[in-house]
Design brief:
By secondary structure, the chain is mainly alpha-helical. It has one domain (about 10-135). The chain contains four helices and four strands; from the N terminus they run E-E-H-H-E-H-E-H. The strands form two sheets. The protein has a two-stranded antiparallel ribbon. Strand 1 and strand 2 (about 10) form a beta hairpin. It is extended.
Amino acid sequence: MGGTGVRGGRMTIEAQLRDKMRKIEALFAGAGTVGERLAAEAALERVRARLGELERRDPAIEMQFSLPDQWSRRLLLALCRRYGLKPYRYRRQRLTTVMVRVPRGFVDQVLWPEFDELNQALTVYLNEVTLRVIREEVYADASEAVEVAQALPSSNGTAAG
């Protein structure tokens, strides 16, 4: 599926996601024009400058993020690296843990709000793709399991649980 493709006059889900991600980035970076590469780069530089300013007023502290899945973790890692931060984790920490030294104000004002918006958009996209593949390739009914009032007896006479 093409990243910026149009199918039947409508943007593909992936193209919509990419467009939304660019708009969200522009919103948090303060860019005036979304689509131009130079404007996006200038916006990124403004955010990096803001980070530098915050670091002078608000010293970096070690922050720990525990993320629910690999997609969220990868997104946070990419955002950190884009802003010149160096994410890491300690030996024996879970793979879903991300550590970073960063001013708290930058996390509160830029990094986490941007991550949250992008992560929500990415989660919606991944869910739609997953359901589509299941419906098309495995079985058309991809609905959730039916909820029952109590445990049903198992075939060997013990309660299922």
